[in-house]
Structures are given as structure tokens and as C-alpha cells.
Amino acid sequence: MASLFFLIDCNNFYVSCERVFDPALRGKPVIVLSNNDGCIVARSEEVKALDIPMGAPAFKYRAQIARYGIRVFSSNYSLYGDMSRRVMEVLSRFTPDMEIYSIDEAFVSFPERMAGDAESLAREMKETVERWTGIPISIGIATTKTLAKVANRIAKAFSKHGGIFNLAACRDVDDWLEKVRVEEVWGVGRRHAKTLRSRGIYTARQLRDAPDTWIRRHLTIMGLRLVWELRGISCLPLEEVPPPRKGILSSRTFGRKVETREELEEAVALYASRAAEKLRKHRLLTSCVHVFLTTNPYQEGPHYANAVTISLENPTNYTPELVRVAREGVGRIFKEGYLYKKAGVMLLELSREGMWQPNLFSPPKRTGKERNLMRALDLINRRYGSETVRLATSGLERRWRVNRSHRSPRYTTRWEELPTVK
DNA sequence: TCTGGGGTCCTAGGACCC
DNA sequence: TCTGGGGTCCTAGGACCC
Length: 422
Hints:
With 422 residues, the chain is of the alpha+beta class. The protein has 13 helices and 12 strands. The protein has helices at 13-21, 45-48, 62-67, 77-92, 118-133, 145-157, 173-179, 190-198, 204-208, 212-230, 261-281, 319-333, 368-384, and strands spanning 3-10, 30-33, 40-43, 71-74, 98-102, 105-111, 137-142, 164-166, 248-258, 284-295, 305-316, 340-352. The protein has a 5-stranded mixed β-sheet. Strands 9-12-10-11 form a 4-stranded antiparallel β-sheet, with helices on one face. It has a 3-stranded mixed β-sheet with strand order 3-2-4. α11 packs antiparallel against α12. The N and C termini lie far apart (54 Å). It binds a DNA duplex (18 and 18 nucleotides) through α8, α10 and β9.
């Protein structure tokens, strides 16, 4: 049975989260920076109007930030994660058929026979989310997910539609697709856009009408699916149950350059601990640890990047074991004489706790004691803040830690940072 | 001086098998 | 003079997403 897809997208999500708790920011230019205060990852409308692009390195725009009095925030993921949970909770009251696609986006679907009510339903969703959470949203409606994305973009670009646009009810779909540039289509990035332009394809409409064989050859099977979706043939179903994770990554750019093996080992020990914590949170075990380090690729001078993958005999989520292996990994790839900028730990080959095959030749050493230790560790860190208790190998001084000089309070997840009403 | 972090999927090519 | 065809599995790298 055919469905109608809604794509719900929070407007300038991180900026909107900051504005909920500081209304003085409304109508003012605001940006939110990535980790280490590196890139601009969210912009208010006022900033978009200044042609400051998404993902730009913040230091290149210092002059404009000062000139226009742009308010700057470091990322506050505790706050954004919690606000996202609230938005999704409100949306889920309208339908069980929902896919949480990212921190600020969700797809929902309704049977096509409800098409007549689609817009009033969307309006109700929008009003409820905005009233209950304070986060403004836009909604795109269409017969496929890719077209719903397009519809959402139109809803955002043309404010006369009041943040809601229903492409399924349009007679002039061709005209609308003509207005959307090919690189704005979901699944077309910089490289594919270039390939398409070289063949004279500039708009979503031209992409929709491109020949299958050429698309298949140059944009792979993914591109072909996307083109079919533009034609209204649904190829991407709603994924209500998230597929099992394939890997868990923890990595950071350093606040300053790191030269010594000891400091790299500290950093990697911390990342391994964090990854192990995520592992336990999802009740998973890993049997493969991937460690990587790299110098700054943007900078002149000798560049070095390397990685190593270490298989474990038995799957585990025990922090000390993973930290030991990760540090060993650093030992294998570290080279003296370079200025390192980033390192990370990736855990692969994940399995569900309690479902792994014991190894015949080396029975597991894991004891109830270890499990209890990890449980206590997680409990303490959840209650008193992360890293209240941690391994000493992850360093005490830690001069390499990230810069985060403009973070707002964690209003909703820390008692001592609750907003005060005057 | 200063350029994020966490994911997914696909393809090409090599090694290996009979 | 003549040197196949059909598979699988693994990995590295590229492209994309937010």
C-alpha cells in the first residue's frame, strides 16, 4: 500500500536549543561551533543571510563575527541530545510509524488515503512541537522519502508556505523540481554534483529525467535509487527499528599539537574508555579494536597518518582490557618526530552481550567481579557526571584536551546548571 | 594560532578456491 | 600455437549523510 512520507526537520536545531533557554538570542545572529570550536555547524537565519557557509572554519570568519556581533556557542551535546529526545517524544504521539533519522530530523508515514488531511495534520504536529518544546520545525510531505526531503527544503526556502509544504498535492511538481539545484538533493554530494554538471544536469528535475544506465554507471546503485525516488517510486522504506550498529567510534582533535607517545597513549586510553562506556550502554561486546592517529593534513610540513587493527581472543566490554589493547596499538604505529593533531579508537565486530560464541581453546576470563566493577563505574559516572571515576592511564594533566570556551549551561540534564528565573 | 565527530553503504581489486 | 570460467571473501578507499 502506498504511503505518504513526512520529513520533520528542526530549524537551525542547535541555535534553536540555545534560544529556548535564552530568549534574548531571538532575532539575533547566532552560531554554534563544532568540537574544539573548529567549524561552524549551526547558523541562525540572520547568519545565513550574511553568506557565512555551513561547515566553515570559525577562525576564517572572526572579522565578520566581531563586525556583526554574532553570538558564538560551543557545542553543548548534553543539551541538544535532551532537546532532541523531547521533540521526538512529541512527534511519536501522532503515529507509531516513525524513523528517527538524525538528532534533528524524523520521517513519519501515513497511509495514502489520509492525503486529504495531510496538511492539517502537519500543522497540528508543528504547533504542538513548538508549543511543548520551544523548537521550531518545518515539514515536507511527499510520496517518497527523497521527495519529502525536497518538499522540506521548499518549505524552508519559501516562508509563505508557513513551514509546511505538500509536494504530493502539487500540480506543478516539475516547476518546483526545476527550482532545486542538483547538489541540494539528498544523496548528491560535491563529487556527484560535479559529475552531473559535466553532463549538463543542474536541477532536480533534470536528474529525475536522466537515463538509468548512465546514472547507474556514474552514481552507483545508490544514485539510481535516488533518481527513482524523485520519480515517485518509493525505494527507501521507513526504518522504524534502527539496524544494529556496525561500529563505535571515539575520536578527538587535540586542543594543541601532541608530540610524545605518553600523551598519545593518555588520549587513546580516554577514547577507549568512552567507547567502552557506549558499548556497555548498548549492551554490546567488541572483538576488534582499531586505533588511528594523524598529524594535521591542512598544514604544511611532514605528514603522517597510520592505523592498526587488533583482534581480541574473546569479545569484551571491559574498560581496562580495551584500554590496554588501545595503548598497545599506539605503540605499534607511533613514530617519533611528528606533531599529532588527532587520534581515535574504533570498536568493530560488535555482538550482543550474552550471545557470543565462547572460544574452545581460551575460555573467557571475564568474571562477575569485572562486570560488577563496570556497572558501578557507569552508575557513578552517570550520577555524578562523566569521568568522575576513570583510569589513571587516561592522564591527569591532559594538556591536549579540546577547547570549548563558549559552552552554554546544560540546562536540562544537570541540577547545578538549571536555568534561573528572575 | 586556529579546519568536528560519528556514522552508513558501495566498488574495485587482490587472494584464493575448484 | 595453444593458457577458462565462475565463484567467495576481504580490505582500502571513496562518497554520502547530519
